[in-house]
Specification:
By secondary structure, this protein is α+β, with helices and mostly antiparallel strands. It has helices spanning 2-18, 22-33, 38-44, 51-85, 106-120, 134-139, 177-186, 227-242, 295-300, 317-325, 330-333, 338-341, and strands at residues 124-125, 131-133, 170-172, 191-200, 212-222, 248-252, 262-267, 284-291, 309-316. The protein contains twelve helices and nine strands. A seven-stranded mixed sheet has the order 1-4-5-9-8-7-6, sandwiched between helices. The protein has a two-stranded antiparallel sheet with strand order 2-3. Helix 1 (2-18) packs parallel to helix 4 (51-85) and helix 2 packs antiparallel against helix 4 (51-85).
Length: 345
């Protein structure tokens, strides 16, 4: 019986080794090791043997079974490897899985673009805190005591600080300009710096207004700052953003922190000046208030107005993004809706 088993083993190994495909190997496994295999037949006939023989033949039969199973596995691995190496069964034309990619928000993209443009002409980028105070955002900026922006209808005052005054009365900054006074107090003139960021206003929202939005402000302070350099700065920014000359108009405007104050409007790029919901049907959008700092503001920043002059510009960053991309509702920008935002990735 031993010889019979050895012969069975050699015959099976020859068959396994001769196998050249996975399709042929599979049926061979049940033929050689299955319940109806010759090996199983031999094992069934062990009953008729003596106890001693049962032991030795049984052991041998199990060893053979195991070595055949190992050979099957080895052959299977070998055939699988050569199958994938040959490229068979692998369709290289099937589309792959795209990795999910994040991207910068369109407001952030423009903010970085402006930072780069300003850095390239020697400006510093400054980040004042978002929680500010009545001192920096109103008193230092020459706001009269009864100015409506001081009241809660416009400014978010921090709970618990309502009864305080000046430096102690804290708020979410309603504009960036207060940050310029901080900078002036911390640095020595002359200055050229920008300070972008989010500001907060307690007002009702519509297509052109949000409660939290972005501004981008720049201030130059030097011994002499001609008015024309401010205008040049504005044109440079708009050209950098839109890649072309943009129609602008200047109007005189009143802002407590500038003297004289002016307002720059640009032609609405959403409707090309025809009138839409963003521009209030006028064809023009208020882009930037600006002008030379009021002497009281320079004084609040620790500078002598007889010695130093300056020029502010304040850009509504969200509006600029809306103009650039033709977006007709500011609320879309802050909705967090990825279907909308992924267009700008
Ligand atoms: Zn328009």
């Amino acid at each position: 019986m031993k010889e019979q088993l050895e012969a069975l083993k050699n015959e099976a190994l020859d068959k396994i080794n001769a196998c050249s495909s996975l399709d042929a190997l599979e049926p061979l496994q049940s033929e050689l090791l299955g319940k109806k295999s010759k090996l199983s037949e031999v094992l069934k006939s062990l009953k008729s043997l003596s106890v001693e023989e049962k032991k030795t033949i049984g052991q041998l039969a199990n060893q053979i079974k195991k070595s055949l199973a190992d050979s099957f596995q080895a052959k299977k691995d070998e055939l699988s490897d050569s199958f994938s190496a040959s490229g068979e069964g692998f369709d290289i034309t099937l589309p792959g899985k795209k990795p999910v990619r994040g991207a910068l928000h369109p407001v952030t993209q423009l903010l970085y673009q402006l930072n780069d443009a300003f850095r390239s002409i020697g400006f510093e980028v400054y980040s004042p805190p978002e929680i500010s105070s009545e001192l920096f955002d109103f008193d230092s900026l020459n706001f009269p005591d009864d100015h409506p922006a001081r009241e809660s209808m416009d400014t978010y005052w921090l709970r618990g600080y309502e009864d305080k005054i000046g430096k102690e009365r804290l708020c979410l900054r309603p504009h960036l300009t207060g940050g310029s006074v901080r900078y002036m107090l911390e640095n020595k003139p002359p200055f050229r710096f920008v300070y972008p960021g989010r500001v907060y206003r307690n007002e009702s929202t519509d297509a052109g207004h949000e409660r939290a939005f972005y501004q981008y402000e720049a201030l130059i302070v030097d011994k002499e700052v001609p008015f024309s350099s401010g205008r040049l700065l504005v044109d440079t920014i708009l050209e950098c953003v839109f890649g072309k000359k943009v129609k602008t108009r200047m109007r005189s405007g009143f802002f407590p922190f500038v003297e004289p104050g002016f307002e720059i409007d640009m032609e609405c790029q959403v409707c090309a000046g025809k009138g839409c919901s963003v521009c209030g049907r006028t064809g023009w959008v208020e882009m930037m208030p600006g002008g030379p700092p009021h002497p009281n503001v320079l004084r609040a920043g620790g500078l002598d107005p007889a010695e130093w002059q300056g020029f502010y510009i304040n850009i509504g960053l969200d509006r600029l993004v809306m103009m650039k991309h033709g977006i007709d509702d500011i609320r879309l920008l802050h909705s967090g809706d990825l279907r909308f935002l992924s267009q700008f990735a």
